[in-house]
């Protein structure tokens, strides 16, 4: 039986049944709208929509018009608490502190870590001043711009405090050149 049903007859039957379904829904649920659409006389509620006039509203007669020029609004302007000011984002910032985040990350802490490793190597291998200069040369090559860093004094103070031998100021300056 199903072998005799072709695609063409299936599609035609589906189209006819779909049209009958939508016609039945339209007649059952939209009967009033269909009758108004089919009426010959165009006077009535449907003609009001075609004129472009807005619908009347009950509340239009009792509404007061607000003054649009009033700056403060209905309840006045807001007042900031005493001691507060409004500033722009370009005027806002944090002052750098000695223990701030920029002191904890960046070039100087990396160099200090390298120097700590140099000192631990010197302590474990019983290194001399000559070994120190050789190891510091690799640190200087790894961080070539550290000599012009504004925090070079902090690095030099760390070296003086932790070096197992005496270093003069001239030796520290020549260390970074």
What topology emerges from the helices and strands here?
Layout: H1 7-29, H2 31-38, H3 45-51, H4 101-104, H5 107-125, H6 129-142, H7 152-162, H8 169-175
**Number of beta strands:** 0
Kindly report the oligomeric state of this protein.
single chain
| Rg on CA atoms, Å | 44 Å
What is the first-to-last residue Cα distance? 99 Å
Poorly predicted runs are 98-102
Estimate the mean pLDDT confidence.
79
Would you write up a description of this structure?
It contains eight helices and no strands. With 177 residues, the chain is mainly alpha-helical. Helix 5 packs antiparallel against helix 6 and helix 5 runs parallel beside helix 7. The termini are far apart.
Task: Quickly list its features.
177 residues; 8 helices; elongated; mainly alpha
Summarize the structure.
The protein is mostly helical.
């Amino acid at each position: 039986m199903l072998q005799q049903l072709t695609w063409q007859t299936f599609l035609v039957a589906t189209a006819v049944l779909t049209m009958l379904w939508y016609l039945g829904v339209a007649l059952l649920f939209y009967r009033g709208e269909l009758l108004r659409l089919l009426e010959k006389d165009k006077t009535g509620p449907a003609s009001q929509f075609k004129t472009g006039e807005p619908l009347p509203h009950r509340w239009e007669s009792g509404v007061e018009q607000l003054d649009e020029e009033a700056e403060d609004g209905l309840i006045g302007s807001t007042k900031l608490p005493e001691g507060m000011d409004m500033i722009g984002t370009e005027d806002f910032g944090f002052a750098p502190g000695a223990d701030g985040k920029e002191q904890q990350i960046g070039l100087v802490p990396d160099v200090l870590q390298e120097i700590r490793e140099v000192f631990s190597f010197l302590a474990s291998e019983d290194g001399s001043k000559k070994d120190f200069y050789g190891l510091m040369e690799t640190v200087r090559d790894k961080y070539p711009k550290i000599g012009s860093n504004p925090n070079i004094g902090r690095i030099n103070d760390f070296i003086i405090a932790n070096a197992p031998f005496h270093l003069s100021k001239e030796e520290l300056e020549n260390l970074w050149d």
